[in-house]
Automatic annotation (TrEMBL):
This is methylmalonate-semialdehyde dehydrogenase (CoA acylating). Residues 12-476 form the Aldehyde dehydrogenase domain. Keywords: NAD, Oxidoreductase. It holds the Pfam family Aldedh. Its EC number is 1.2.1.27. InterPro entries: Ald_DH/histidinol_DH (IPR016161), Ald_DH_C (IPR016163), Ald_DH_CS_CYS (IPR016160), Ald_DH_N (IPR016162), Aldehyde_DH_dom (IPR015590), MeMal-semiAld_DH (IPR010061). Belongs to the aldehyde dehydrogenase family. It comes from Hydrocarboniphaga effusa AP103. It is an enzyme of class 1 (oxidoreductase). NCBIfam families: MMSDH (TIGR01722). One of its GO terms (biological process) is thymine catabolic process.
Length: 497
């Protein structure tokens, strides 16, 4: 049985842990590998390795750092098919979606290669007589990242490239459910030239998470995952004096106005709701049909029935398995609760027959109508291929409904009215807005800007905001004297003149 290694001080090492977990193919239940829950001593060794490497890495020139990430993005492109195959085997998403997962992370790597312009400070000349002021964006030290199962390539690539490019060193804790593609990406990072100790990896569960939050030598923690765990991480890390950014759960709404392009909108909704088996924090899992657009529901249901459910490796598959037996049980349980609470089950995806993959963790596209606030299927993030449909009489009613929901990751509006779109984007209290775009995750030139209960911390991952998260702004005010400078005597006032 293959075992997943730790990365400490540039070496892939076997854990001495007595606690292990199996990595399982969700389509077949085949055991792919065993992953250790690292010991406290192994976490300490990883952090110490990063701390020692920081002494020299922080002084490495921006040009050297940039060239490493130029090489790294090239290696990721060259190994795209291999990486996608690993990801699909352990996580379940289709091969094309796995490549998309990797590509969205690759975009951040490319952004990291532009660190020379991203990490520039500011300068003001002669702010007072003979006085200049400028800022330096200096690295913090050892940073850490805790990543989820649903994007085992993209989310790690959101974190360690930008942290390392800005001069920090890093300790990464991937999801213990699907760490293999993450480890292959780490191998490629070392091949690209990331020095020993600059990037370290430990695996584990609650104990390692708490250890990262508590460790005195870790200066910042980045997290993506569930609201429950993210809230815990933010509170514990900040209590220990660390910077923290936590991207958490969501209930993303898609609002459809009657003037929207019908076919294009329905196709977009189906893809955004059921792609990746609904296991996206940005999935459009909640549909609000406004006015006459409620008549579109039968067509939405009929098109959803035609999606192909199978293993992610099978050609033409639209929806793969969910990640684990536990996830399948939870999703089916929430579907049952939706029925009991009075929602109408328009399409039932439970217990599908998938030829050749009878043991897989499959649930097909599922659609509820007549959903109301207060129902479990509306209040909870299902994290499966389940779309809940609500109705609103007007755009204003839809905006009020969404703004009442505590989550704020993303929202979308489908319309051909510029006036409606402008009012929506101004009045909606959600951090990321799509206009005729179902999943409005910005490219890395911008920052991921989830809000409210979906995010803790002021600064988001990647983009300009993450430069501020991973650096300390130092302001220098200086004056130089020469022999021609005339002394004006002692000045006890606060101003510089």
């Amino acid at each position: 049985m293959p075992t997943v290694k730790l990365l400490i001080g540039g070496q892939f090492v076997d854990s001495t842990s007595t606690q292990w977990r199996e990595v399982i193919n969700p389509a077949t239940q085949q055991v792919l590998a065993r992953v250790p829950f690292a010991t406290t001593q192994e976490l300490d060794a990883a952090v110490d390795s990063a701390k020692q490497a920081f002494k020299t890495w922080r002084k490495t020139s921006i040009g050297v750092r940039a060239r490493i990430f130029l090489k790294y993005q090239q290696l990721i492109r060259e190994h795209m098919k291999e990486l996608a195959a690993i990801l699909t085997a352990e996580q379940g998403k289709t091969l094309p979606d796995a490549e998309g997962d990797i590509f969205r992370g690759l975009e951040v790597v490319e952004h990291a290669a532009n660190i020379g312009t991203l990490q520039m400070g500011e300068l003001a000349n002669n702010v007072a007589t003979g006085v200049d002021t400028y800022t330096l964006l200096q690295p913090l030290g050892v940073c850490a990242g805790i990543t989820p199962f649903n994007f085992p390539a993209m989310i790690p690539l959101w974190m360690f490239p930008m942290a390392i490019a800005t001069g920090n060193t890093f300790v990464l804790k991937p999801s213990e459910q699907d760490p293999m593609v993450t480890m292959r990406l780490v191998e490629l990072a070392l091949e690209a030239g990331v020095p020993a100790g600059v990037l370290n990896v430990v695996h584990g569960g609650e104990n390692i998470v708490n250890g990262i939050c508590d460790h005195p030598d870790i200066k910042a923690v980045s997290f993506v995952g569930s609201t429950k765990v993210g809230t815990h991480v933010y509170r514990r890390a900040t209590l220990a004096g660390k910077r923290a950014q936590c991207m958490m759960g969501a209930k993303n709404h898609a609002v459809v106005l009657p003037d929207a392009n019908r076919e294009q909108t329905i196709n977009n909704l189906i893809g955004a709701a059921f792609g990746a088996a609904g296991q996206r924090c940005m999935a459009a899992s909640t549909l609000v049909l406004v006015g006459e657009s409620r008549a579109w529901l039968p067509e939405l249901v009929e098109k959803s029935k035609k999606l192909k459910l199978s293993a992610g490796t099978e050609p033409g598959t639209d929806v793969g398995p969910v990640v684990s037996c536990g996830a399948l049980e939870r999703i089916n349980g929430l579907i049952e609760r939706g029925i009991l609470e009075g929602a109408k089950l328009e399409l039932d995806g439970r217990a599908p027959k998938v030829a050749g993959y009878e043991n897989g963790n499959f649930v097909g596209p599922t659609i509820f109508s007549g959903v109301k606030p207060g129902m479990s299927v509306y209040e909870q993030e299902i994290f499966g291929p389940v779309l809940v449909v609500l109705e609103a009489a007007s755009l204003d009613e839809a905006i009020d409904l969404i703004n009442t929901n505590p989550n704020g990751n993303g929202v979308a509006l489908f319309t051909q009215s510029g006036a409606a779109a402008r009012r929506f984007q101004e009045e909606i209290d959600i951090g990321q807005v799509g206009i005729n775009v179902p999943i409005p995750v910005p490219v890395p030139l911008f920052s991921f800007t989830g809000s409210r209960a979906s995010k803790l911390g002021d600064l988001g991952p990647y983009g300009k905001q993450v430069i501020l998260f991973y650096t300390q702004t130092k302001t220098v005010t200086q004056r130089w004297f020469d022999d021609s400078t005339l002394s004006v005597g002692v000045n006890t006032t606060i101003s510089l003149r």
